[in-house]
What we know:
This protein is α/β, with parallel strands linked by helices and 399 residues long.
Amino acid sequence: MNDRRPDRSPVGQLVDVLLPELIDFRRAVHRNPELSFAEHQTTERILATLRAAGLNPVALEGTGAYVDVGSGPIAIGLRADIDALPIIEETGLEYASQVEGVAHSCGHDIHTTVMLGVALLLRRLEEAGELHGRVRVIFQPAEEKMPGGAQAVIAAGVLDEVPRILALHCEPRIDAGSVGTRIGAITSASDTIKIELTGRGGHTSRPHLTEDVVFAMSQIVTQVPAILTRKVDVRSAVSVVWGQIHAGSAPNAIPGTGYLAGTMRCLDGDAWHAAGELLDATVRQVAAPYGVEVKLEHTRGVPPVVNAASETELIENAARAEIGSASVVLTPQSMGGEDFAWMTNMIPGAMFRLGTRAPGGETYDLHRGDYIPDERAIPTGVRVMAAACLQAIAEMNGN
């Protein structure tokens, strides 16, 4: 049993001092959400807060920013995503979104606030002469868009000096005050599929004189996912799920066009590449007997985020020291996609799940307009991330 009293740690004491400012910052960002690659006000708010603390942040082209805290070689990088979703907020909070049809329904305002808090905390330590290395904190735009902002950050050279990297993601199924970790793949690969079928329409009494796009669509909807389960190793859990199907306007008329769209997800990176090529061919093969023309738009999205063992251990050790061993739980692999994967493909890294459920309260889900994360998650996230940074610096210095 860990006998340490996490609430008395030096990091915890600094977090207590910073918390009122962080809550105000989070609510301001939540009230003014911005979509992918349009996070101008959010970026300016981040830059202004960091500059007020005496730091020298760098604005990225368009939106997003990064800041180095400390001196010497970079020991570790942290990444937060800053964009919101095109969702109507339904929380009724006094600081609810003031932007019609846009909301922070995935918790990126929490992510941004936590990483800002880490930067401010490390700055306090630097001013006190107690920070003996350098940390790079990255505020990435456009995680919700494919291709996302992670690739833009990488192309800008922001990771060139970073030897390892950490991130977090809100988890509404874990209580605030706890975190979830996992070695290996923690998220899924994710692609977007859009298919348009065209053919000669006609009367439903004479389908043999038409190219029945509705029937062809029904075969694609059911057969393509089934065929992939027999062509790809089942352990990779390839999943094709349709979210949109549109065709026709009358019950007795076969339309000339039809549209369907969905996603393909996969737990294994190698299988993801193979399944992507197979999916395109399978769609066309299934549609071929019906004589319809197929227009397929398959957008390759992101590979899985694969947590390295060393970086996962770094997070777990920091969490046990700061919030107690009982607060670290094993989290299941998610079928959601996350473009932090491009960073962990490049350098060793790990993402952990930050519990946001009010203990004993309602379990929400991400990407829902009524999602209300418990703000007690913010100090937990800052404490764990800051402690992990300090441990990474100590490791770099041979301590």
